[in-house]
Every structure is written in structure tokens, then in C-alpha cells.
Design goal:
Heme Oxygenase, Chain A, globular, mainly alpha, single chain, 11 helices, 67% helix
């Protein structure tokens, strides 16, 4: 096979799955710490607060992708993602369920929604993801969502681990995760089929792989930021700090949960 010959669909899928096996953020040390019970209450708070920004921006990212899909059938499938996160009525949807988690960890909804206390690293990573989906080809935008191929595994690890090790969470407060595995499976199967069908050239296939690598880096970067700020306690100025933590940097926001 020449270097520019298209890969078979089976080989391309295998490359994508290998990318997830090597780069997905379930391998990150923060997730291992979270799932094994090694996180303090304050570290779990920080994770939930910062992850909210990612959750809240996913439907905005998906709405951007929706405008770029030419096929009615493709748009019909894609908009299910927006409904999953935003809900179809008041009090429904993944963003609302995430707020129930931050509620249970003592944060006010106004503070969480303001995103005032989140880490710059988390904000920059998520904003880069939204911009990627706006600026790159629709094929790349869809391919970047293929991390959902691997999310059911990490969700299972997260729920079982957190329920086993933290008495301040429950199945009710972790309700976001009970809904995601079937949604992620449906979305990942569609996105994978879309990419395999629309990546006709070797160059397009390489872009699909690179898009998935980029998304893995987005997720990894958010956890790097959490580790530095809340495990190593090198929080940057202006972010949320747990009550009682020293204001190590001028301007650090001690807005308590």
C-alpha cells in the first residue's frame, strides 16, 4: 500500500480505537485518583465545578456543527445531542443533571453558571474545542466527537469508584452519568459511520485521526489544569479556592461553595 492510498474502513476504525486506547483521559492520573477514592472533597468539588464549563459548552459546540451539516438526515441525527444536553423542557437534560451534582457539592447555581472560578486551562481547552468545530471541516468536527466511543468505559469506572469511596455522592447526585452511556453509544456509532463513509482519501482519513487526537488532548489538558491547581496546590490567580486554603496568589477568588 502506498503512503497516500486510502485505508480500508476496518483499518481506519482500528486506528481510531487505538488512539482512544492510548490517549483517552481515563488514563490520566487525576482520573485514577478520582475513581480510586484518592481525591479529597475539595478536589471533587474542583473537578465538578470546572467540568461544568465543558458540559455547558457541548450543546453550543453541537449547534455550531449542526449548521454545517448539509444533509437533512445528518442534521436530524446530530440535533439529538443538543436535546440530550439542553433537555426538551425545563429541568431536563445533561446540563441540568450536572448542576444537581454541583448543588450537592455546595455550590450555588449562580456561581457555577457564571464560570467565574474555573481554571484558565479548562476554559482555554474548551474554547479551543468549540473553535475547532467552527473552523475545521464538518468531517473533522464530527470526528472530534469520537471520544464517545470510549466514554462508557470511563463512566462505568467513575460511577462505581465514586459510589464505593465517597459518602458525599449518591446515584441521585451522579444521575448525569446514568443517562450518558446509551446516548454516547448511539452518537458514537453514528459519528463513526459518518467518518468511515465520508473520509474518502488518505488525507481525509488522516484528518479524522488527528481530530480525535485533538479532542483527547482537550480532555487531557483540563485534567492537567486540575492536577496542578488542586493536587499540587498551585492554583492560578482568580480561580475558586476551597475555604481555608491560603490565598497564595493575589487575586485568587475565595468564593466558597
Amino acid at each position: 500500500m502506498s503512503d497516500d492510498a486510502p485505508l480500508s474502513a476496518a483499518y481506519l476504525e482500528a486506528r481510531l480505537r487505538r488512539t482512544g486506547a492510548e490517549r483517552y483521559h481515563n488514563l490520566h492520573r487525576f482520573h485514577r485518583r478520582l475513581h480510586s477514592g484518592g481525591c479529597s472533597y475539595e478536589e471533587v468539588q474542583a473537578w465538578a465545578l470546572n467540568r461544568y464549563y465543558y458540559q455547558s459548552m457541548i450543546p453550543i459546540k453541537d449547534a455550531t456543527v449542526l449548521t454545517r451539516l448539509a444533509s437533512i438526515e445528518d442534521r436530524r441525527e446530530w440535533r439529538k445531542r443538543i436535546e440530550d444536553h439542553d433537555g426538551t423542557k425545563e429541568g431536563d437534560g445533561g446540563v441540568e443533571r450536572w448542576l444537581k451534582l454541583t448543588d450537592s457539592l455546595g455550590f450555588s447555581r449562580d456561581y457555577v453558571r457564571s464560570t467565574e472560578g474555573i481554571l484558565p486551562g479548562a476554559r482555554f481547552a474548551v474554547d479551543a474545542y468549540v473553535e475547532f468545530c467552527r473552523a475545521r471541516t464538518p468531517l473533522e468536527a464530527v470526528a472530534s466527537s469520537l471520544t464517545e466511543l470510549f466514554s462508557p468505559t470511563v463512566i462505568g469506572e467513575r460511577v462505581s469508584g465514586m459510589l464505593a469511596h465517597y459518602d458525599f455522592v449518591s446515584r441521585e447526585t451522579l444521575a448525569y452519568f446514568s443517562q450518558r452511556p446509551p446516548q454516547a453509544k448511539r452518537d458514537a456509532e453514528w459519528a463513526l459511520a459518518f467518518c468511515l463513509a465520508n473520509a474518502h482519501t488518505r488525507a481525509q482519513q488522516e484528518l479524522v485521526v488527528k481530530a480525535l487526537e485533538f479532542k483527547c488532548a482537550v480532555l487531557w489538558t483540563q485534567l492537567d489544569a486540575l492536577w496542578t491547581a488542586y493536587v499540587e496546590r498551585e492554583a492560578p490567580p482568580g480561580v475558586w479556592l476551597p475555604a481555608g486554603w491560603p490565598q497564595a496568589h493575589s487575586g485568587a477568588a475565595g468564593v466558597a461553595a
